[in-house]
Amino acid sequence: MEIEVENTFHAPLPHAGELIWGWEIPVYLFLGGLVAGMMILSGAYFLSKKRNELPFTIVGGAILSPIVLSIGMFMLFLDLSYKVHVWRFYTAFEFTSPMSWGSWILMLIYPVSILFITALLFEEVKKGGGVAEYLTKIGKKLEFLRPLGDLLDEIPPWAAKNVNIFAWMSIGLGIALGAYTGILLSSYAARPLWNSQALAPLFLISGLSSAAALSVILEKKDKAKHEMARIDRVFIGVELFIIFLLFANLAYSVRAHQWALGPFVGSNIYTPLFWVLVVGMGLITPLFLEFLEVRKVIKPTIVVPILVILGGILLRFAFVYAGQAVCWCYFIYR
Amino acid sequence: MKQGEKRYAMVIDTTLCVGCKDCLMACQTENNVPLPFFREWLVFLTKGEFPNLHRVIRSERCHHCDRAPCVGVCPTGASHFDEGGIVVVDPKKCTGCKACIAACPYNARFVHPEGYVDKCSFCIHRTSVGLKPACVDVCPTHCLHFGDINDPSSEVSKLLKSRRWENLIPEAGTKPQLYFLY
């Protein structure tokens, strides 16, 4: 393939027009972050014995985690260009490959998550009430599993006895998953916008923020909604601080990194996407509205959590797409 | 790089290249690369300021880096170092996750229509039996040279000792193994 290159940065580059990762990856990164946030909040609030105050955050979050994670992993599967080889991820472990670490972390989450859910539901059944009756009905439908023997009878009490361990593991794996979604991008030196480890805490905190926002929507009691809105404010504040650190990191770095900021400070689509929609609509507006809600100037609505979740999705889109617009290979043709 | 081991590299004499594209034709046919995809490409670069302009023509491909980031990030071991440090993709192990494409600072990789990730292999099927890569074999001006830079008596070692050369973006830290003579 012949490439005409003049002394300009807008030169055509080899394979430059081809997008590496499309919409599937940002959607996965968001869902992965959301699951990480739900697992951490669920484990942490369980350990602080707020079971009755925050039923959705603890039990609902734990149950939703593996379901949402499966949707996210399906997005990853959609992105693969050689789909029949997907099993190859699980016949190898490559120490230097973040993607290999990530695929094994995803596999670890399922058993821990299922045991944690089992323990939570077992306690729910012991307590009695509506949920217990519903679960007993489901249990009767699962009678066909009886041939598996006593094992099925023994797991729930065993899980309930060790529930604190699973809560801690849930927090640990949640942090690993949330940070990994950032490290996945930040391990590529060739794409300087991604190449900052600030992405790991940024995506982790953004995931926590989205999970807290989801709890604000789905918790029933006002007190619970208030509690989740309160911690969401902290997450949004920290997220803004990490975005500042990320920009300072790149702006004060070498030329490749300074150039990497181009898509976010230039006259292209990523500049308004990032500053207006992600920072303005997804972070500063909800922070301001929550401030007004606390002062009782306005009543709490679902507008704030929806803005936070939209901001979380668009944050991943902005970084995944803008990061591919800048490559080290620009330096070859200078 | 260990001493005494083979380390294949390519030396490209930019002063001899006339931009005839024979190397591209040889590559597409030898490796059955379907258009519009390509494993190597030509760069026509105009340097300097008018009226003191000069043209550089470069035949470029995968740099077969000593510290190849594409090998490090591959989750399945499909991207690996083969004989003489040649970086090769094993299509049987490739899932098409595209991590290696993102990791390559030279944009040398692409997704083959069959699904796996493809790139220059220094024609390893030829070099392993003592032949030269197809592009080197067909070059009419003999501007492409291929050999073992760990062997001081090889043609490439002698060229690197006697001529001024440079790597492309060595600051990316990958120790590229394409050497351009000026």
- Report the helical percentage of chain A: 55-70%
Sequence of strands across the biggest β-sheet of chain B: 8-1-10-9
In N-to-C order, the SSE pattern of chain A is: EHHHHHHHHHHHH
Biggest sheet of chain A: strands, sense, closure? none
Mean pLDDT over the full residue set of chain B? 91
Top-tier CATH class of chain A? Mainly Alpha
- Largest sheet data of chain B: 4 strands, mixed
Write the CATH fold name of chain B.
Alpha-Beta Plaits
- Summarize the helix and strand pattern of chain B as letters: EHEEHEEHEEHHEHEE
Low-confidence stretches of chain B: none
What is the CATH-assigned architecture of chain B? Answer: 2-Layer Sandwich
Q: What general form of chain B does the structure show? A: globular
Q: Please tally the helical runs of chain A, counting DSSP H or I stretches of 4 or more residues.
A: 12
Give Rg of chain B in angstroms: 16 Å
Oligomer: heterodimer
CATH level 1 name of chain B: Alpha Beta
Mean pLDDT level of chain A: 88
What does this structure look like?
The complex is a heterodimer of chains A (334) and B (182). The model of chain A is unreliable at 6-11 (pLDDT under 50). Chain A has one domain (24-331): Up-down Bundle (Formate dehydrogenase/DMSO reductase fold), CATH 1.20.1630. Chain A is built from twelve helices and one strand. In chain A, helix 1 (24-47) packs antiparallel against helix 2 (55-79) and helix 1 (24-47) crosses helix 7. With 334 residues, chain A is mainly alpha-helical. The longest helix of chain A has 30 residues, at 98-127. Helices cover 20% and strands 25% of the residues of chain B. Chain B has helices at residues 22-30, 69-73, 99-103, 124-127, 134-138, 155-162; strands spanning 8-13, 41-49, 52-60, 79-81, 87-89, 110-111, 117-118, 144-148, 165-166, 178-181. Chain B has a four-stranded mixed sheet. The longest helix of chain B is centred in the first third of the chain and has 9 residues, at 22-30. Chain B is globular, with a radius of gyration of 16 Å.
